[in-house]
């Protein structure tokens, strides 16, 4: 599996989240790689998600161009940095924002976090189409969809999701598809400050909340049918 | 399609065994508000193998308890009218299983473990085993309990053995600054205790079933061996899928 190896060993698959045992931080903020990529993001509004941004950034630090060999995935390193950093920012939002703590139900929290994540795209709004084009390229799509899944998993977890059956999957999958749709819309959005995108986010996510309920209701209905069917057979059998 | 379902069945309607099951499952949450004592140790990281193991343990135990819960639900549905004298016995075992199921549900949410992908299949399969064996007769139902609890008890023991042997994680003593081994974090200790208690409960069910004529079921060995095989296959699958 390819990794971007920012100093620490990146977690390829998320499993068992521990509270008392140290978790490896994904980013090693001291490493030159992190610093170059962080600075490179400042060049993105100008150059787009291109290798040129990394190059310009490393030159401002005075590194020789040979340091480019750190970035063997080229542009994708930059893109992944952006995706992971914006995703991890949500965890900070949850722990540090008072506004978030006052939100009552799960669905409003999901809305809030999705919008926060979309806000992370605002400075690079012009280049979202380009970003998405990179993400769906065959060499990148695996890692990109994994990152997308991690995003929806994080948002669901942080909003206090407590699904323990198949709803767990449907909730994450539906959030992922909605997020991609919203980002695609954002790429074409010409309204000031992307107000249309955020309005759409409100609308789309309101419908999403009912999905888990629908699943549970269908299961409930099937169970009820089986149950009453059995009772019918039992009553017929006793009558003889 | 779906919206009509929502309209005809009022939200939160409780009229079947399943909704009672679910109501119990949802109303319990992780008790997390205790004031914490000052930290004494700082524990090292779990390695990938240990994490993968814990991931599997929680997923398979959750699926297993879900199965047990639904087996008893099925048996109770049939036997509560046919064999009224067994009602309190079944009810007691079923309630314990509900508690186990809730506990693992809470752990699954807390530790961000994905639940088994085929939970609908587990529900259906477990419920049919429960109803099926109970329809054969109360002895068959008890033989089913014997088979299931034997496999589950053994499986819990296997897990405890690994948790005891492979989880010696070095910790830093925050007072002296020394690195010590042989201490267990509350998190892992709690998991071990949970599994140990649940194993004892399951073995108690096993005894109860034997006391209630499980061995008089007619093709006893066939029934128990078939169910044991099914359980092992289910465990293998639930760990992975």
Automatic annotation (TrEMBL), chain A:
<comment type="similarity">
    <text>Belongs to the COQ9 family.</text>
</comment>
<dbReference type="InterPro" id="IPR012762">
    <property type="entry name" value="Ubiq_biosynth_COQ9"/>
</dbReference>
<keyword id="KW-0496">Mitochondrion</keyword>
<keyword id="KW-0446">Lipid-binding</keyword>
<dbReference type="Pfam" id="PF08511">
    <property type="entry name" value="COQ9"/>
</dbReference>
<dbReference type="GO" id="GO:0005743">
    <property type="term" value="C:mitochondrial inner membrane"/>
</dbReference>
<comment type="pathway">
    <text>Cofactor biosynthesis; ubiquinone biosynthesis.</text>
</comment>
<feature type="domain" description="COQ9 C-terminal">
    <location>
        <begin position="143"/>
        <end position="211"/>
    </location>
</feature>
<dbReference type="InterPro" id="IPR013718">
    <property type="entry name" value="COQ9_C"/>
</dbReference>
<protein>
    <recommendedName>
        <fullName>Ubiquinone biosynthesis protein</fullName>
    </recommendedName>
</protein>
<keyword id="KW-0831">Ubiquinone biosynthesis</keyword>
<dbReference type="GO" id="GO:0006744">
    <property type="term" value="P:ubiquinone biosynthetic process"/>
</dbReference>
<dbReference type="GO" id="GO:0008289">
    <property type="term" value="F:lipid binding"/>
</dbReference>
<keyword id="KW-0809">Transit peptide</keyword>
<comment type="function">
    <text>Membrane-associated protein that warps the membrane surface to access and bind aromatic isoprenes with high specificity, including ubiquinone (CoQ) isoprene intermediates and presents them directly to Coq7, therefore facilitating the Coq7-mediated hydroxylase step. Participates in the biosynthesis of coenzyme Q, also named ubiquinone, an essential lipid-soluble electron transporter for aerobic cellular respiration.</text>
</comment>
TrEMBL record, chain B:
<keyword id="KW-0472">Membrane</keyword>
<keyword id="KW-0560">Oxidoreductase</keyword>
<keyword id="KW-0408">Iron</keyword>
<comment type="subunit">
    <text>Component of a multi-subunit COQ enzyme complex, composed of at least COQ3, COQ4, COQ5, COQ6, COQ7 and COQ9.</text>
</comment>
<keyword id="KW-0378">Hydrolase</keyword>
<dbReference type="GO" id="GO:0031314">
    <property type="term" value="C:extrinsic component of mitochondrial inner membrane"/>
</dbReference>
<dbReference type="InterPro" id="IPR011566">
    <property type="entry name" value="Ubq_synth_Coq7"/>
</dbReference>
<dbReference type="InterPro" id="IPR009078">
    <property type="entry name" value="Ferritin-like_SF"/>
</dbReference>
<dbReference type="GO" id="GO:0016787">
    <property type="term" value="F:hydrolase activity"/>
</dbReference>
<feature type="binding site">
    <location>
        <position position="202"/>
    </location>
    <ligand>
        <name>Fe cation 1</name>
    </ligand>
</feature>
<dbReference type="Pfam" id="PF03232">
    <property type="entry name" value="COQ7"/>
</dbReference>
<feature type="binding site">
    <location>
        <position position="97"/>
    </location>
    <ligand>
        <name>Fe cation 1</name>
    </ligand>
</feature>
<feature type="binding site">
    <location>
        <position position="149"/>
    </location>
    <ligand>
        <name>Fe cation 2</name>
    </ligand>
</feature>
<comment type="function">
    <text>Catalyzes the hydroxylation of 2-polyprenyl-3-methyl-6-methoxy-1,4-benzoquinol (DMQH2) during ubiquinone biosynthesis. Has also a structural role in the COQ enzyme complex, stabilizing other COQ polypeptides.</text>
</comment>
<comment type="similarity">
    <text>Belongs to the COQ7 family.</text>
</comment>
<feature type="binding site">
    <location>
        <position position="100"/>
    </location>
    <ligand>
        <name>Fe cation 1</name>
    </ligand>
</feature>
<dbReference type="GO" id="GO:0016709">
    <property type="term" value="F:oxidoreductase activity, acting on paired donors, with incorporation or reduction of molecular oxygen, NAD(P)H as one donor, and incorporation of one atom of oxygen"/>
</dbReference>
<comment type="pathway">
    <text>Cofactor biosynthesis; ubiquinone biosynthesis.</text>
</comment>
<keyword id="KW-0479">Metal-binding</keyword>
<feature type="binding site">
    <location>
        <position position="97"/>
    </location>
    <ligand>
        <name>Fe cation 2</name>
    </ligand>
</feature>
<protein>
    <recommendedName>
        <fullName>5-demethoxyubiquinone hydroxylase, mitochondrial</fullName>
        <ecNumber>1.14.99.60</ecNumber>
    </recommendedName>
</protein>
<keyword id="KW-0503">Monooxygenase</keyword>
């Amino acid at each position: 599996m390819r990794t971007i190896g920012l100093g620490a060993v990146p977690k390829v698959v998320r499993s068992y989240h521990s509270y008392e045992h140290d978790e490896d931080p994904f980013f090693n903020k001291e490493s030159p790689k992190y610093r170059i990529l962080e600075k490179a993001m400042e060049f993105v509004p100008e150059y787009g998600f291109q290798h040129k941004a990394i190059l310009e950034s490393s030159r401002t630090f005075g590194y020789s161009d040979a340091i480019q060999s750190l970035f063997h995935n080229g542009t994708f390193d930059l893109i992944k940095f952006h995706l992971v950093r914006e995703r991890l920012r949500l965890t900070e939002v949850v722990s540090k924002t008072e506004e978030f703590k006052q939100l009552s139900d799960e669905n409003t929290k999901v809305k809030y976090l999705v919008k926060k994540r979309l806000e992370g795209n605002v400075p690079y709004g012009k280049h979202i189409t380009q970003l998405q084009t990179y993400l769906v390229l065959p060499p990148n799509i695996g890692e990109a969809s994994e990152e997308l899944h991690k995003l929806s998993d994080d948002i669901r977890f942080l909003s206090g999701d407590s699904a323990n059956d198949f709803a767990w999957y449907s909730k994450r999958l539906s959030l992922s598809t909605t997020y991609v749709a919203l980002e695609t819309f954002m790429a074409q959005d010409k309204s000031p400050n992307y107000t249309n995108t955020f309005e759409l986010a409100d609308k789309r996510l309101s419908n999403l909340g009912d999905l888990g309920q629908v699943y549970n209701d269908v299961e409930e209905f099937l169970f009820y049918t089986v149950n009453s069917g059995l009772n019918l057979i039992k009553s017929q059998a006793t009558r003889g | 399609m779906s919206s009509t379902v929502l309209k005809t069945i009022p939200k939160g309607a409780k009229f079947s065994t399943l909704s009672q099951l679910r109501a119990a499952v949802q109303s319990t949450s992780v008790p997390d508000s205790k004031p914490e004592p000052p930290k004494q140790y700082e524990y090292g990281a779990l390695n990938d193998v240990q994490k993968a193991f814990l991931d599997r343990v929680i997923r398979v135990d959750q699926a297993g308890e879900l199965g047990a819960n639904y087996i008893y639900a099925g048996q109770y549905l049939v036997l509560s009218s046919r064999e009224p004298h067994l009602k309190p016995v079944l009810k007691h075992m079923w309630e314990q299983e509900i508690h186990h199921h809730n506990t693992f549900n809470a752990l699954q949410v807390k530790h961000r473990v994905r639940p088994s992908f085929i939970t609908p299949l587990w529900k259906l399969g477990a419920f049919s085993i429960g109803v099926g064996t109970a329809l054969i007769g109360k002895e068959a139902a008890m033989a089913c309990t014997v088979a299931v609890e034997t496999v589950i008890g053994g499986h819990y023991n296997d897990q405890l053995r690994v948790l005891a042997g492979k989880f010696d994680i070095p910790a830093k003593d925050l007072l002296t600054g020394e690195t010590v081994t042989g201490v267990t974090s509350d998190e892992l200790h709690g998991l071990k205790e949970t599994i140990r208690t649940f194993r004892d409960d399951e073995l108690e069910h096993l005894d109860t079933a034997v006391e209630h004529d499980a061995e008089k079921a007619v093709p006893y060995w066939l029934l128990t061996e078939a169910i044991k095989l099914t359980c092992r296959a289910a465990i293998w699958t639930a760990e992975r899928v």
